[in-house]
Amino acid sequence: MIALIRYTFATVLHTQRYLAPFLLFMGLMGVLTVNGSGPLAPAYASSAGALFVCSTWLTIALMSLDDPPQRAIVVITAGGRPLTVLLAAIGTALLSCLVLMVFGLLFPLWMGDYVVTTVDLLVGLEAQLTCALIGIAIGVLCSRLVFRRQGYGLVAALALVMGALFVKGMPPVNRLFTLMSTTSDAEELLAPAGIMLAISVVILAMFTAATQFVAGRRE
Q: Is pTM beyond 0.90 here?
């Protein structure tokens, strides 16, 4: 698994497919979190939203690094275990998002005027991790393994992202953002944010299983 993650990191760095989603993340952070004040939760909702979009795009890019013949070679090299290759790509996306999460936690503090508590940081961490996991889940489901024509995969990803962001009350993303924008006490957000995080883990597991099922039938 570690060797596969290193291979995926090396490939994505060589192809520079990480640049566009990373630049988008930085641009959204600069627009959404500059010169803020008051409760930290809305600022962290903005950084989590930026990470959500970035993680979706980054995961689709990671899943599309290898064309079918190259993927077949990677699977054989991994001992004929396509699920291991898929999990390695997911692990690479998650590790990349963890790096961005540090920036997402600290950048609003640098650019704004906030009173920071440990609880605020925990809520921000939960929110960003939730959005990263959902973004990865959408990226996996809309990847080349499921949609051979990338245009269809892009349309599906946009639809899922828009639905997760804007369908009122939709857990975990829209529901989480609604809570963070309407609740000023960070301690009251800890438990609901934890529930949304648990839901995102379940969704990622379901989407991964669905992707592996479709890819397995095709391969």
A: yes
More reliable by pLDDT, 13 or 101: 101
Give the DSSP letter of residue 113: B
Domains contained in the chain, number = 1
Question: What's the CA gap between 141 and 65, in Å, rounded?
Answer: 15
Residue type, 23: L
Range of the domain at 142: 2-218
- CA neighbor of 135 nearest in space, from 27, 71, 207: 207
Terminal CA-to-CA distance of the chain, rounded, Å? 21
Strands (E), 109-164: none
Q: Where are the beta strands (DSSP E) in 97-209?
A: none
Three-state DSSP at 137 gives: helix
> 3-class SS at 53?
helix
Q: How many helices (H) and strands (E) does the chain have?
A: 9, 0
**b/e per residue, 108-146, with b = 16+ CB within 10 A?**
bbeeeebeeeebbbbbbbbbbbbbbbbbbbbbbbbbbbb
Secondary-structure breakdown of the chain: helix, strand, coil percentages, each rounded to the nearest 5? 80, 0, 20
- pLDDT single digits (tens) 50-90: 999 999 999 999 998 888 788 888 888 888 788 999 999 99
